[in-house]
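Entry 14. Structure prediction run on the chain below.
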Amino acid sequence: MTVPVWVLLGFAFWTLITLLGSVGVYRWGRILTGRAGLNEFPADVPHGSDWYRRAMRAHANCVENLPVYAAIVVAIIASGVQSKTLDVLAIILLVARVFQTITHIAFEPTNTMVGVRFAFYFTQLVCLFWMGITVAILA
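Output returned:
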């Protein structure tokens, strides 16, 4: 497997880890201790602690961005392009994704922390654009 494909797999696992390690722990902790029922987590109604709501948004953000990266990996595979630049950008993207998620969940959304979180997201955007342009040029 190529580095971008390994990173795609890592991104998918990170998305699952984010879901299970935050939203899942919160919900099942409340359900198993009798503090909530299975039906007390409607998607369209804000509920839970601030931490829990941030975790839900962080997971949703992973889910929203995973298909974009997957589309670029499909283009890489379909074109047969291999490049150290693509490998490095893919790794940077995953590292930035992990730190963005951690920052989103672990810290209150002060101006400073939102700025830090956005810097990690912006890094991912740069990587995605750069990877897409690299594939288009080298294909």
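Residues 46 and 73 are 35 Å apart (CA to CA).
Filed with the rest of this week's runs.
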